[in-house]
Amino acid sequence: MHAAFAAWRAFQDKVLAPAAALLLIGSTLLGLLEVVRRYVLGLSFDWQQDAVTYFMLSGVFLYFSISQRKDAHLQVTLVPELLMIAGPRAQLAAAIVKLVALLFAFVFLVAVVWWGIPEIEESIAYDVRSESLAFLMWPFLAVLLASFAFMAVTMLFQLWFMVEKLRGRPVPEEPADREATH
Amino acid sequence: MGIVGTVLFSLLLLSVPIGIALSAAAAAYILVDPLLETTVIFRQFFSFIARYSLTAIPLFIFAGFLMERTGLIGQLFRFSDSLVGWMPGGFGVATVVACVLFGAISGSSVAMAAAMSAIAIPEMRKRGYPDWLSGGLVATAGGIAILIPPSIPLLIYGIITETSVVRLFFAGVIPGLLLALGNIITVIIIAVYLKLPRTDRFDAKRLLRESKGAAPALGMPVVILGGLYGGVFTPTEAAAAACGYALIYGLVTGRGEFFRYLLPTATRSLHLTGIIVFLIGSVGVFQFLAANMYWPQMITRTIVSWGLSPLGFIFAFMGVLLLLGMFVDGVAMILLTVPVVFPVAYALKIDPVALGIMVVLNVEAGVVTPPVGLNLFAVSGTSRISLPEVIKGTIPFFAGDIAVLLLVIFFPGIATWLPDLLVKPIF
Question: What's the pTM?
Answer without folding.
Answer: 0.84
